[in-house]
User: Which sequence fits this backbone?
């Protein structure tokens, strides 16, 4: 089916692409070096303190105020929503202002979608919407439910 030259080329490519463990494993980790790495990691974990909700809120408010490009705003939003808590309305407000600053309407709409999935029930989501009503009107941000009423 294949000519002999194609088979030879395929075989040589497969041999060239095969991993060579002998060259990868030449740099070994000595027990002393391993013990230093472990001590540094343990020290790092011991210095970690639990962040309060107020500290979390202040940190993300500051991060959104300092974000001046779309990548940073989306990265901070992703990090903010990755925690096992719902961000305070003031953090969402700062996020929406940052979306406006970088001129990104879709991310502002998606912020409300993320908020809807993050809260526990519809009442909490409605409370956030009521709290953020003024900023939504000021910035002209519609909700996905308003944009796609037929799909809901």
Assistant:
């Amino acid at each position: 089916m294949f000519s002999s030259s194609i088979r030879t080329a395929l075989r040589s490519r497969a041999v060239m692409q095969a991993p060579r463990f002998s060259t990868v494993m030449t740099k070994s980790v000595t027990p002393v070096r391993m013990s230093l790495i472990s001590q540094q990691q343990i020290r790092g974990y011991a210095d970690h303190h639990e962040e309060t909700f107020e500290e979390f809120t202040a940190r993300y408010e500051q991060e959104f105020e300092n974000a001046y490009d779309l990548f940073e705003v989306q990265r901070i939003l992703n990090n903010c929503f990755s925690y096992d808590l719902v961000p305070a309305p003031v953090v969402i407000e700062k996020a929406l202002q940052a979306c406006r600053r970088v001129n990104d309407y879709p991310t502002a709409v998606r912020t409300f979608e993320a908020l809807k999935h993050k809260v526990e029930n519809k009442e909490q989501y409605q409370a956030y919407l009521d709290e953020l009503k003024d900023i939504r009107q000021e910035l002209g941000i519609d909700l996905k439910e308003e944009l796609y009423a037929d799909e809901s």
The radius of gyration is 26 Å.
